[in-house]
Amino acid sequence: MKIGFIGLGIMGKPMVRNLLKAGHEVVVYDIIDENVEILAADGAIPADSARKVAEQCGVVITMLPNSPHVKTAVLGKDGVLEGAGENTILIDMSSIAPKASQEIAKACAEKGIRMLDAPVSGGEPKAVDGTLSIMVGGDKELFEQVKHDILLKMGSSAVWCGDIGAGNTTKLANQVIVALNIAAVAEAFTLAKKSGVKPELVFDAIRGGLAGSTVMDAKVPMMLEGNKEPGFKIDLHIKDLANALDTGHEAGSPMPLAALVMEMMQTLKADGLGQKDHSALSEYYAKLSGTELANR
Ligand code: NAD
What is the pTM of this model? Predict the structure, then answer.
């Protein structure tokens, strides 16, 4: 199948490679020419606008930072809508506001283009391995149509969550849990260290118990090493929490804990750590307590 792919960053590049590996032809575009060239060298077909991608492909995937980028690439000048024929399928795999997914899908429907929102969880390593968790909103039959040949070539699970926007609502729930969990482990491990107990021993003692989590396993070792290389950047998590808070306010679902962690992340961003991994939340506690988790 000939698939279009727009947005060739940390996640987009390995996702395209997995589609190529599965035998698809992939037409690629990014506003950064170098990203297009890198994938062209891997066998993808380069294009110089989102419109030209859509002119050639019955299925177009977008993997862009946030709602405004998806609106520009799909609805803007030289965007997907200008090039797409009727019955084109748009799969937006970016993590954006659910409301934006609904607005974009509505504009697409007016041209006969069907859309799914299909954000992912798992980060770059799972994008490389093709083992992302994919959460999908939109028409269920359309989801079934693309599930095996497309989505499961990039992920190990793809779950239909409801109508358009439900994929991104699910992703926001995921991002709230991850943010709060990172803050919880940073706070608790700082307490242990400040009280004179080695955090390495606390980790060994509790990771198999009820407090254990994927977040604890992935992020505590980074905190203890003082490794802040992303992973998932604080700036991107701020974007997700902003979308979560807006969505919560609109739905009448208060989010006091997410609001608090948002301000902690904003403090780190103001300190120049926006491009660092979200596990750098431990630095917030280092400032409050005067105790670094990392043994430097
Ligand atoms: P990234 O910033 O590395 O890549 C985004 C790419 O989009 C860039 O190459 C940029 O040049 C391109 N772009 C921006 N506007 C464009 C436009 N109008 N037309 C064409 N290209 C455009 O971001 P990423 O880490 O690949 O993340 C993409 C999405 O996936 C985000 O929504 C992010 O929250 C989500 N996500 C990221 C991770 C992760 O670990 N990095 C994990 C899960 C989900």
Answer: 0.95
